[in-house]
Amino acid sequence: MENGRVVLVVDDDPRICRLLGRYLEQEGYRVLTASSAAEMRQQLAVIQVDLVLLDVRLPDDDGFSLVKELSTVPELAIIMVTGRSDPFDKVLGLELGADDYVTKPFDQRELLARIRSVLRRSRQDSPDAEIRSRGSVAFFAGWKLDMPAQELVSPHGNRVLLTAREFQLLAALVEHAMRVLSRDAILDLLTGRDWMPIDRSIDVLIGKLRKKLGDDAHSPQLIKTVRGVGYKLAVPVERR
After folding, report:
1. Domain ranges in the chain?
2. What is the pLDDT of residues 108-166, one digit of tens each?
3. Alpha-carbon span 186 to 205, nearest angstrom
């Protein structure tokens, strides 16, 4: 298998399930299929899945709602594979937590390349895993980021839920506090994949993090934008 990776294809078109199942299995992946949201949840409840290929139109739920649900699962990658090619749908999918968005009809080799690229973010030797393994707890502006536990605690002592990708980004900013990171550098730190100019995922994640940190998007004090360059955590970090 491809490093033991498990891919779950969620699509109500049996032809798509068979096509992707045969192709990805030939490439060394273990492939599961589900024709509905209910079947998808059943599969996820009993088997550890690395990546979900998710259609938007399902008989019992909306794919965009499912992306939001799935994005809270640690280390689970999501690629939307759908016939909806409207740019608004793509941006919405990325904002809700999808790692990539592929429109039908698709080229199998291109989809395979995107799968391999997206899966890099959940490898055990990824940068965020290395950060967590250091066992450090970081404090900044009253906030507490527990790296091993992947837990963010507010100045008032409340736990703030972060998706896996939000944690990765915040951990990267904390590790490079007071230093400007370009979008290219951030993406490399998170995933190790090449930057795609059309990819807005970093900007979207920054917006989500600011909201969860209570950082005013119009006049941010924690995560600042350096115009034309990138972003930085603009407060000092203390480690214990």
Report:
1. 6-122, 127-239
2. 999 999 999 888 765 543 444 444 444 478 999 999 998 877 789 999 999 998 887 78
3. 11
**Whole-angstrom distance, CA of residue 56 vs CA of residue 66:** 9
Q: 127-239 has which fold?
A: Arc Repressor Mutant, subunit A (1.10.10)
CATH number belonging to domain 6-122? 3.40.50.2300
Cα 68 to Cα 191: distance, rounded to the nearest angstrom: 20
Write the pLDDT tens digit of every residue in 90-115: 888 888 888 899 988 899 999 999 99
d(CA 87, CA 58): 20
Tell me what percent of the chain is helix, strand and coil, each rounded to the nearest 5: 40, 20, 40
Are the CB atoms for 24 and 31 separated by under 8 Å?
Answer: yes
